Structure formats: structure tokens, C-alpha cells
Amino acid sequence: xxxxxxxxxxxxxxxxxxxxxxxxxxxxxxxxxxxxxxxxxxxxxxxxxxxxxxxxxxxxxxxxxxxxxxxxxxxxxxxxxxxxxxxxxxxxxxxxxxxxxxxxxxxxxxxxxxxxxxxxxxxxxxxxxxxxxxxxxxxxxxxxxxxxxxxxxxxxxxxxxxxxxxxxxxxxxxxxxxxxxxxxxxxxxxxxxxxxx
Length: 197
What we know:
Blueprint: E1 13-19, H1 30-46, E2 49-57, E3 60-67, H2 74-93, E4 105-108, H3 115-127, H4 129-132, H5 165-168, H6 174-192
Antiparallel strand pairs: 1-3, 1-4, 2-3
Helix pairs in contact: 1-2, 3-6
């Protein structure tokens, strides 16, 4: 059965994710993480797009990317990031063979029933992915730690994070937006039964 065609639209926000080959925990290796970060940085120099969230888990990653009008498609962006990551990692480690488990998956956030609510939930879901898998205790301590960009004005993550316009619609200024974003985070923590002491 042929794979369904991917929906490619511009000026849309995509939740993209992809698994390592055979669900191997390749991202447990810091070299793989560094290659992934470098690939994103290279892609940000090559193509115009907004990276709204990014996080690495042992055997996969999650990105939220907003494409821009008349600029690179989500397919071109993801193809570049994944190819460069595999290329660099195999070269640095002497590894041979595929890094990825096939093509990436994606969902368009604007197609959700309530895109704004879904975006904020998804940001928390992505930020807490390494926490749920036991790789960190707090999303602020994750390898990329993109969630800090939504909580600390001017915070610089290892990759350039552009705050999504849904975040700016939470309030009149950054402080108010961050305060309301924390309410989403708190609701997410309660939902998964996670409380910090």
C-alpha cells in the first residue's frame, strides 16, 4: 500500500518528529546530539523558516517549525536536517548505515480543532519528553532546553528559537505571556501526574 501523500503548505506550523534507525538510542551519544544541533544551525543559515521548539530524546526528536511564504517547504527543511545529521555522525564515528528509521512524520497545528490550545499543549509535551523518558528532571535542563525561551526573555538556546505568534497572543508583554504559558505547563504536569518538590 503506498504511503499517503504529505500535505505541504506554506505559512503553516508543523509538528515534526523522526525516529532513529531501529529505534536505537543513537541520541544517547553526545556526538549525535552535537551533529543534530549543527545540522539545524546549518539549515537555519541555508533556509528561511521559524523554529519554534526543538527537543531530543534518546531515540527520536521533535521540532515545531513554521514555514514562510515562498520559502523552503517542510520537506526540504527536514530532508536537509536529517541528511546532514546522519552524514556528520557517520563521518565522526566511523559508523556505516542509515541513521534514521525512514521519513519524518508531521502534523499541521493549524488543522487542529483549537490550534492555539494545541500549540501550547504540544510545547509542553515536547519539553517534557526527555523528562518522561528519565533523561532529565526538568525541561529547563534538557539538552536544547527550548522551553527556557518561552520563560526567560532573551534566552539563547543552542539553536535559534523564534517564539510563535500564538505565544505572543497570550498577553500584552513577554512577562504576561510567560506567566500564562506557565499555567499551560502546570496543567500539563498535573495531567501526567508530575509534581516538582
